[in-house]
Automatic annotation (TrEMBL), chains A, B:
Its main location: cytoplasm. This is Homoserine O-acetyltransferase. It comes from Hansschlegelia quercus. InterPro entries: AB_hydrolase_1, AB_hydrolase_fold, HAT_MetX-like. Residues 59-368 form the AB hydrolase-1 domain. It is an enzyme of class 2 (transferase). It holds the Pfam family Abhydrolase_1. GO terms for molecular function: homoserine O-acetyltransferase activity.
Length: 390, 390
């Protein structure tokens, strides 16, 4: 394929997407060498694109999704029928402006929205992988994305951006493929997962594996779904995404039926009903084994440890421009973790700015309508685009 | 019974206890009128005592236990074989000095260590109550304790003291039976349960009821135990008892097997292994239905709402001496909730002191070796004892 053909095919695919929220799927010919030492092949990567790749192929923005996110950033979600998870951030005239940038988002390896994951069919057996899929890490997710860029003929990223686990991927991109990331915007994230966060993930995994319908991970083969366990995992996690003040403001002690306690175990309080709904709707769109794999990938993330215990070493010699953003009320990824990243980047003499955004919206703020985050993102991308001549 | 006989029998019982950690059980003749409108009869209350009731019966200290605590405050626990949960606080020469005070602790109504609860036999059917036991509240727990005092011939308490749900009972005692509480020491608690705390409880309840071995609450009849669900509930709750810095210091990202990740779902991290142990050991000593009942009682607690929306009204005209204590790193019952209690007590012109203790031990600090808490307790009790002429 010559350059013009690549450009044409990528953009034609993008235009098809506008009419059809089903994802593109790249069949990657090259095996993915995993951090565990195993190899994953064949590898399929499901992705969405928005906007048009320019002639220089210099305007690609990779959006990295979070634990339970997926590639449906700014289109109607094919399962839920809801707007994409970052449709306020990504689109024409939005902070990540699809009139200027070619935006790519791929489902992570280990995920369940089309990219190879535990629910995918293992061609060697003709059955779903289940737990026979090798464990994947954040590094493996990023290496899979790099293979996707190779596949698309995109040499490097103008920007890698994402929140939470997406932010981990952004940091990993900058450390692992420094020459392929012009700018990086990690949001509400950290360079390693904390003990408390590992603990919450472990509770979720225990809830799933405690469900007899999980069937030792073989539920797809045996025709069951560990709905209850997965719902409990989601409920526990969901609490950590919101701040205590936000819960207080949104729900407080409000009853479902005003002034009436049932003196029973129904969902008397609105917060109970809300959580139950979160759990029940999650199981309709997410695979339980994927939840095990992707939480494990986050637990394993420790970029400093991967570089001899020095986070600064991970970014040695970096030319990437960084903007690190955190939220005051985020107790899952508190500002302290962002500061550690910034200190390491400073120690590596990197070009870095740091914004702590005041909000009571908690960790979920990166997904919500937070004007300061939009302004930060737009400002950072505009400045970087100027330097890059976009 | 004349007074001397009562004194003798109470103290003889206390002496028997020293040799035998099995609890005394009071069969309460009077039905317990519950907040729900139901009546509970017969009512049995299991309790422990330490020290000797004085001739004036003026030195009784009621220790109120927390969610998963019980009456075994300062003796070897009959199930776990471990020292009582507050043996550092209660005993000869300890801050709650059993050489001076007659200490009582009773298992709460709804509990599972001998007091009437869902695992008790319903005399009407000859089967365990299960979910047919009416729901109980913090007020019901306190009214049951008041009936126990009547039974023991103890007119009033020199002090009511407890942490977490124990502190809720202390506040409820002062509001409900103001003439029977000379002094009150609520620790690490609040006058109402927050939305976040209700949310965590709901996750625990969902984990239990999702377990097929729960059998719609009839597991005792059907010979099963919802071990996995109860363990998950305990694990989720346990995270909230510790502070993030304490988890970081105690476990951080330490691996079980130094420097070796298994790239699987075993308990690679020490924090995972610790949580699994907490879950597994809890199911050996606690009843799943009791967990539902007692968490629900905490959720329902809102002392201000019970008094027309004014917490100050709950304490109107109080003569009780209060000391309110909180811990800086307690995110389950943060200092803010303690402050609200203190403000209400001030508005009610109560005699109140307030101590916020700096510690990184989180909510569990009330159970741990925290010298400032011991000093606060001893100082408050000594001063109150002086006023009372003890």
């Amino acid at each position: 394929m010559n350059e013009a053909t690549i450009e044409l095919s990528v953009n034609a695919a993008a235009r098809r997407e506008a009419d059809n929220p089903r994802s593109l799927v790249a069949a990657i010919g090259k095996p993915l060498k995993l951090e565990s030492g195993s190899t994953l092949a064949p590898l399929r990567i499901a992705y969405q694109t928005y906007g048009v790749l320019n002639r220089d192929r210099s305007n690609a923005v990779l959006v990295c999704h979070a634990l339970t996110g997926d590639q449906h950033v700014a289109n109607v979600h094919p399962v839920t029928g809801k707007q994409g998870w970052w449709s306020t951030m990504v689109g024409p005239g939005r902070p990540v402006d699809t009139d200027r940038f070619f935006v790519i988002c791929s489902n992570v390896v280990g995920g369940c929205m089309g990219t190879t994951g535990p629910a995918s069919t293992d061609p060697a057996t003709g059955e779903p992988y289940g737990l026979s899929l090798p464990l994947v890490t954040i590094r493996d997710m990023v290496d899979a994305q790099a293979l996707l860029l190779d596949h698309l003929g995109i040499p490097d990223l103008f920007c890698a951006v994402g929140g939470s686990m997406g932010g981990m991927q952004v940091l990993q991109w900058a450390a692992r493929h420094p020459d392929r990331v012009f700018s990086a915007l990690p949001i509400a994230t950290a360079a390693k997962h904390s003990a408390q966060n590992i603990a919450f993930h472990e509770v979720g995994r225990q809830a799933i594996t405690a469900d007899p319908d999980w069937r030792d991970g073989r539920y797809l083969l045996e025709g069951s779904i560990p709905r209850k366990g997965l719902a409990v995992a989601r409920m526990a996690a969901h609490i950590t995404y919101l701040s205590e003040p936000a819960l207080q403001t949104k729900f407080g002690r409000n009853l479902q039926d005003r002034d009436r306690r049932t003196f029973g175990f129904d969902a008397d309080f609105q917060i109970e009903s809300y959580l139950r709904h979160q759990g029940a709707s999650f199981v309709e769109r997410f695979d339980a084994n994927s939840y095990l794999y992707v939480t494990r990938a986050m637990d394993y993330f420790d970029l400093g440890a991967d570089h001899g215990g020095s986070l600064a070493a991970a970014f040695k010699g970096t030319k990437t421009r960084f903007c690190v953003a955190s939220f005051t009320s985020d107790w899952l990824f508190p500002t302290e973790g962002a500061r550690q990243v910034v200190h390491a980047l400073n120690a590596a003499a990197a070009n870095v700015s740091f914004v702590e955004i005041a909000t009571d919206k908690g960790h979920d703020a990166f997904l919500l309508d937070v004007p300061e985050l939009f302004a930060t993102t737009k400002g950072f991308l505009d400045a970087a685009a100027k330097v890059r001549g976009l």
